[in-house]
């Protein structure tokens, strides 16, 4: 289990698909890497085992997967990433940036799928090995923006992305509720703003926090 205070250098990016979070996670990493040792990860993923689980989760052919199985697979992938990669990096004093963490599970499997939020919270404690991010950036976007970005990307949707707009609306509302419940950790950002504006906003927040 992570030591107390170990999470100070742990930063996460959250939001519905096509919110711009991944772009900003990469941009923050690129700027921080010039000043200090840091690591960029994605959840689920980042380790051999976690990436294998990710491929199962996002495979469009797995339409029969139950919501509870989905939840537990996310937690299994996360636990492997935390134990194998995140905790060792934090112990070395590195800054860890993660594209999604357990807030995604609360939003997608809790609010989106409708699973019991207390059960999801308990599962998150196990999957995260009780590691909590220090700062979380949430990118909030209107459905119309998401639709336009999807069409422009011309990317094949994975199993979760293919759930449709009503599902994403529930997820978005869930994220907003999570942010309200955790005001000291969350920064709610308008994902419709320009890439450069968002990058500068995040950079100012992080540099004031870390340095």
Biggest β-sheet strands, sense, barrel: 5 strands, parallel
Helix content: 40-55%
Number of domains: 1
Q: In which order are the strands of the major sheet placed? A: 2-3-1-4-5
Low-confidence stretches: 1-5
Q: Note the quaternary state here.
A: single chain
SS-based class = alpha/beta
**Cα-atom radius of gyration:** 16 Å
Please tally the β strands and state the result.
Answer: 5
CATH class: Alpha Beta
Q: Under the CATH scheme, which architecture would be assigned?
A: 3-Layer(aba) Sandwich
Distance between the termini: 27 Å
Order of helices and strands: EHEHHEHHEHHEH
User: For the record, what is the CATH homologous superfamily label?
Assistant: P-loop containing nucleotide triphosphate hydrolases
Helices, by number, come to: 8
Q: At the third CATH level, what is the topology name?
A: Rossmann fold
Overview of this protein structure:
The protein is α/β, with parallel strands linked by helices and 211 residues long. The protein has one domain (6-210): P-loop containing nucleotide triphosphate hydrolases (Rossmann fold), CATH 3.40.50. It is 54% helix and 13% strand. The chain is built from eight helices and five strands. Strands 2-3-1-4-5 form a five-stranded parallel sheet, with helices on both faces. Helix 1 (21-32) packs across helix 8, helix 4 (102-112) runs antiparallel to helix 5 and helix 4 crosses helix 7 (165-181). The two termini are 27 Å apart. The relative contact order is 0.20. Mean pLDDT is 92; it is low at 1-5.
């Amino acid at each position: 289990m992570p030591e107390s205070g170990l999470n100070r250098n742990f930063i996460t990016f959250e939001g519905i698909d096509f919110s711009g979070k991944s772009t900003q996670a990469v941009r923050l990493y690129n700027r921080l890497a010039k000043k200090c040792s840091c690591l960029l990860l994605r959840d689920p993923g980042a380790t051999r085992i976690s990436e294998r689980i990710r491929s199962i989760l996002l495979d469009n052919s797995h339409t029969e997967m139950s919501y509870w199985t989905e939840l537990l697979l996310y937690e299994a992938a996360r636990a492997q990433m935390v134990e194998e990669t995140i905790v060792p990096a934090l112990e070395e004093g590195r800054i860890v940036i993660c594209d999604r963490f357990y807030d995604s599970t609360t939003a997608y499997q809790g609010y989106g799928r409708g699973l019991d939020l207390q059960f999801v919270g308990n599962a998150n404690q196990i999957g995260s090995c009780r590691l909590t991010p220090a700062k979380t950036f949430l990118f909030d976007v209107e459905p119309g923006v998401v639709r336009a970005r999807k069409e422009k990307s011309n990317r094949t949707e994975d199993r979760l992305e293919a759930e449709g707009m009503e599902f994403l609306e529930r997820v978005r509302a869930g994220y907003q509720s999570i942010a309200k419940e955790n005001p000291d950790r969350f920064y709610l950002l308008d994902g419709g703003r320009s890439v450069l504006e968002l990058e500068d906003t995040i950079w100012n927040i992080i540099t004031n926090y870390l340095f």
